[in-house]
Design goal:
Length: about 150
């Protein structure tokens, strides 16, 4: 399995874990003002279904492919640690770009105390799950060697 496909698969697993977390967030009434799907659907034309689709597109394709491309560039770090670093970067981008776009301000300051920290927690969970899944897939489905590649 190539790094790109491994990244996409890891992004899918991590996104599904976040779906469970977001549903728990709704069921428990935890930080409803910081629910990513509600923030996305509040943009207007996208609607709730579109918000969920966007969440999967970003988590699986954008972040999954990015992780699959970037993870091999830091060979000495374990994949779970790469996932944590990736989650922090994704959270920073969300706080600096997405939150102002949805009207929540930089670092979600308009959503109240703790919103940014709560979302950091979700991003760390996403990153760890993606990193661990990526690592497991490397063991379970290693990349096939190219027989035409020159042997050293």
């Amino acid at each position: 399995m190539s790094n790109s496909w491994r990244g996409v698969a890891a992004g899918l697993v991590a996104t599904l874990v976040l779906v469970v977390m977001l549903n728990l967030q709704t069921a428990l009434g935890v930080m409803p003002q910081a629910h990513i799907i509600s923030l996305l659907s509040g943009l207007g034309a996208i609607g709730r279904g579109g918000a969920w689709a966007d969440h999967f597109i970003v988590g699986v394709l954008m972040w999954g492919l990015a992780f699959g491309s970037l993870a091999p560039l830091i060979p000495k770090w374990p994949d779970w640690l790469k996932g944590i670093a990736f989650g922090i970067v994704a959270w920073l981008l969300m706080m600096l770009i997405f939150m102002p776009v949805v009207g929540a301000g930089l670092f979600a300051q308009k959503l109240g105390v703790g919103a940014a920290a709560f979302m950091l927690g979700l991003h760390l969970i996403f990153g760890i799950v993606m990193g661990v899944t990526y690592s497991l897939l490397a063991v379970w489905m290693p990349a096939k060697e190219d027989p035409s590649a020159p042997q050293l």
